[in-house]
Amino acid sequence: MLWTIIVAIVVGAIIGALGRLLVPGKQNISLLVTILIGIVANVIVTFIVRQFGYSNASGIAWIPLILGAVVAAIIIVIYGRVTHKTV
C-alpha cells in the first residue's frame, strides 16, 4: 500500500512536469499542485487505456506516459484559466 502511494507520487510528479513542459509560457503553480495534476492525469489515462485493452507486461509504459503528459497539460491549462495563474 505504501509503495503504491510512493509510486503514484513519483509518476504524478513526472507526468505533471512533462505536462508543464508542453504548455507554453510560465505557470505559477506549486510543486504540490503539479504532482496532484499529474496523479489525476495518470488516473484518467490509466482508466482510458485499460478500457481499450492496453497492458504492458514489462518495461516502461510509454503510451500511458505520453498520454498522461498531454492530459496533464490540458488540466494545467484549465487550472491556469480558472485560477488566473498563467503568465
Task: Explain what this protein looks like in three dimensions.
The chain is mostly helical and 87 residues long. It has one domain. It contains three helices and no strands. The chain has helices spanning 2-22, 31-51, 62-83. Helix 1 (2-22) packs across helix 3 and helix 2 crosses helix 3.
Shape field? globular
Report on the biggest sheet: none
Instruction: Output the number of helix runs.
Output: 3
Helix-strand topology string? HHH
Mean pLDDT reading: 88
How many beta-strand runs?
0
The span between the termini is 39 Å
Helix content: over 70%
Assess the beta-strand content as a share of residues.
under 5%
Given helix and strand content, the structural type is mainly alpha
Count of distinct structural domains:
1
Write down the Rg: 13 Å
Spans with pLDDT under 50 lasting ≥5 residues? none
Break the fold down into its secondary structure elements and pairings.
Elements lengths: L1 H21 L8 H21 L10 H22 L4
Helix pairs in contact: 1-2, 1-3, 2-3
Q: Would you summarize the structure shown here?
A:
The chain has 87 residues and is mainly alpha-helical. The protein contains 3 helices and no strands. It is globular and about 40 Å long.
Pick out its properties.
3 helices, 87 residues, mainly alpha, 0% strand, globular
